[in-house]
Amino acid sequence: xxxxxxxxxxxxxxxxxxxxxxxxxxxxxxxxxxxxxxxxxxxxxxxxxxxxxxxxxxxxxxxxxxxxxxxxxxxxxxxxxxxxxxxxxxxxxxxxxxxxxxxxxxxxxxxxxxxxxxxxxxxxxxxxxxxxxxxxxxxxxxxxxxxxxxxxxxxxxxxxxxxxxxxxxxxxxxxxxxxxxxxxxxxxxxxxxxxxxxxxxxxxxxxxxxxxxxx
Length: 215
Prior knowledge:
The protein has helices at about 5-15, 20-30, 35-55, 60-80, 105-115, 130-140, 155-165, 180-185, 190, 200-215, and strands spanning about 90-95, 120-125, 145-150, 175-180, 195-200. Strand 3, helix 7 (about 155-165) and strand 4 (about 175-180) form a beta-alpha-beta unit. It folds into 2 domains: about 5-80, Orthogonal Bundle (Methyltransferase, Methionine Synthase (B12-binding Domains), Chain A, domain 1); about 85-215, Rossmann fold. It has 10 helices and 5 strands. The chain has a 5-stranded parallel beta sheet, sandwiched between helices. With about 220 residues, the chain is an alpha/beta fold.
């Protein structure tokens, strides 16, 4: 079994709204010794991108898109387990979506990848107030803050969150990575809003972060 076949089966299950078949497909991939990171990167991510594309061209409804998202979140939660985790490395990460942002699968994937690499992660989820994010980063003395913004009109809010973090005591030590469609479309934009780096996917986020921290 290869990931392309798994992707096709998984996308078919999403389009049918079949949660059980989607879960069976993902579990079957793991049983066939496909690494969970490859399932995330080569199955879940492209499947959700395709669902988004179909929504944009009016081939699926908002309800179908939301159902596919809910199914994927459920499947991710059910296949994820401590067996995939490396030993702790003494690094901490806080991850969140900016206020008003409700699309959290991408940031959830990034969070899982860092935890699998041995990081202690504090996943705050969607639509988080600025002050609460700053407080968590400060309390945990996080090495990394990961921020997701999937819409262009949310970039300003990401900038405001970064400015708040930078003006707090946490700003002296925390690195900040941003991700989402606006930063894929404009790869240098992360610098204009005060972030340290950006990455197009979870695997690249881990690689860039470790390179930055070591440098």
